[in-house]
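Ticket #4471: complex job returned nothing on first submit. Input attached below:
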Amino acid sequence: SMLPLMSTPRITTHYTIHPRDKDPRWEGVEMERFADEADVVIVGGGPAGLAAAIRLKQLANKHEKELRVCLVEKAPQIGAHTLSGACLEPSALTELIPDWKERGAPLNTPVTEDVFSILTEKYRIPVPILPGLPMQNHGNYIVRMGNLVRWLGEQAEELGVELYPGYAAAEVLFHEDGSVKGIATNDVGIAKDGSPKDIFERGMELHAKVTLFGEGCHGHLAKQLYNKFNLRENCEPQTYAIGLKELWMIDEKKWRPGRVEHSVGWPLDRNTYGGSFLYHLNEGEPLVALGFVVGLDYTNPYLSPFREFQRWKHHPFVAPTLEGGQRIAYGARALNEGGCQSIPKLTFPGGLLIGCSPGFMNVPKIKGTHTAMKSGMLAAEAIFPKLTAETLDSETAGLHVPEYAENLKNSWVWKELYAVRNIRPSFHNYFGLYGGMIYTGIFYWIFRGKEPWTLKHCGTDANQLKPAKECTPIEYPKPDGKISFDLLSSVALSGTNHEGDQPPHLTLKDDSIPVARNLGIYDGPEQRFCPAGVYEYVPLDTGNGMRLQINAQNCVHCKTCDIKDPSQNINWVVPEGGGGPAYNGM
Amino acid sequence: MSGRVLVGVKRVIDYAVKIRVKPDNTGVVTDGVKHSMNPFCEIAVEEAVKLKEKKLIKEVVAVSCGPQQSQETIRTALAMGADRGIHVDVSGKDYENLGPLQVSKILAALAKQEDAQLILLGKQAIDDDCNQTGQMTAALLDWPQGTFASEVSLEGDKINLVREIDGGLEHIKINTPAVITADLRLNTPRYATLPNIMKAKKKKIVTVKPADLGVDVTSRLEVLKVEEPPQRQAGRV
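Support reply: We reran it on our side without changes. The output follows.
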């Protein structure tokens, strides 16, 4: 039969794919950028970036030195792009700000009850949390991470850190010797078709002696830095999960402040890593934070993490808590699961990687904030003496600070991650979840990670998907509108929005690959793994064939698509600053 | 005409955020919620800055009434090109009850204090949709008003204005001093870029209290209850 002539409608218009120096529409447009100098520039206003900023200023004040620290953050306000469970281990916070309680840090809910279950479709098998197992939460606090991050921002501002929310770091700048010179923020006023609007303005350059990159899990600038400086040549690829979360105002009678619930098992099969969390906050109202995590090494392209989350809520152990309640927030974010096997080289001339970007999450504890903060603090402590030394001790124009990586290796961060390094990979066995739990129960509980071997991961998450024809579609139940919901009403609750008239920031290296490969071989898994409905395959106007429609405005900046695209064709870049979700205490 | 322009800017909940009613039905949840400058106020600021760039006016003064955070909104106006800011400090219960009548009294007092030739406001705020402040301010000052402006041009000491009205477009000519309220099509506001935000930190914002201006912000209105709109019922054909 004759194949119809397929012409791919143009999807990608972003200048990172279609350079402007060759684009006639940009001829004569002033591209000069205003530049300013700081001592340190920090990309990302999350726990790691803010901890680094605070520590730098504490050191500067202690030693009576002047230090200009500038922090750029793409969210419209500090905390608006923060999403986490979360059960916080306060160790790093106490090291950073010992009097955090007197200063009003929002750690209001000590954990009082800790429950772990294996769920089956109808039942629940309780699993005792023996002391010494990583998932034990004694001494920890349930927090609304966005509020903690906002508080950290206030502490940073008080110390004189210059915070610039609403401005995204879009480009890394380099000295002639190849070392990092700083960053440039995003341009504004580019139309959806990639042409300049009347209000076009270039971003600004922030130059620094050293730049800290704390973009969170799977940062887009970090991706470039890995390539430029070969930072991943001696480590395993990073592996990830997607975490989806909701906040619910529940019936007061069901409220048990301080209660922490985790589960594994249903609705996931034993070979798909993931589980749930449900935390009862204690901040004066019956609020619970709940959510679902799915390892992105799943193999079935028909799997939808969002719909697994929605159907989990109907389990007889979970639904009663939510009945009569009201959902008030929704969001999603990728998280890293690779542990110490996947940590890249952390320093390069002119820059350092901190926080979830290189990835310090303790997977069985499901905690990464304490290690992220500590990494930021260690970075600050390593940089400070070099910045303020009498003579600038550096071969390159941008400061190289390898001491940071050495200090991190000697700190409790590395010790902790090393001890749990085999738990997540132990999941890759015939018995899947049960094998992993047995490994944890035996080897971790007895040997605490001292076993002399280090298990490997399976390769990149993107390579794990099997072709659609080898897999069975999953029958998901329809949302009932009371406990479970449809995708679009969920996305509305994230408060996400972007200036509509700008090039889609979900860029494709090749516009023809989605239909040819992703749809052709994998039945368009991006329609299912995106928690915000960005990707849709819709029929062509001509009627023969499909095209990919990218609803960029819905994006919640979770980074899952960049991670899980089996063709690795999607490159997430930063949209105009100030866009994205408007999370409030998530 | 050269002189001073007062631009009112209001800090409102961002238009993309899903509003939630407080459990006690006294209002909506604002704590921690993303706020931004009212879109029509952005248009008013842009128009004022354009007039200054054309050298038709000398100084743009941004004014906002509200709590401490209103200073962020003034800072954005300064980054767009306003010269200095006045923060009228109203917080707590007074802020919850602050409405067009009190704000227009404040603006009228400031207009006299600052010897303003022009007051530029957004036509309405997207939180209360009142569409009253501009009109009330003009009445209190006994100044002409050009509301729903989609085109503004200065001609000597008069203003030519095109207004968007139900029937189409109305062309009027008004004397100065005057109050103008901006409609959607008046202009496309520029971005507040980072270098301008940094420069704006050096521009002055003065804080005053309503009492300093001789204004009593006690509300004549009492909000009895705030509730969600009723659930939409399915249609029947």
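Chain B is about 25% helix and 30% strand. Closing as resolved unless it happens again.
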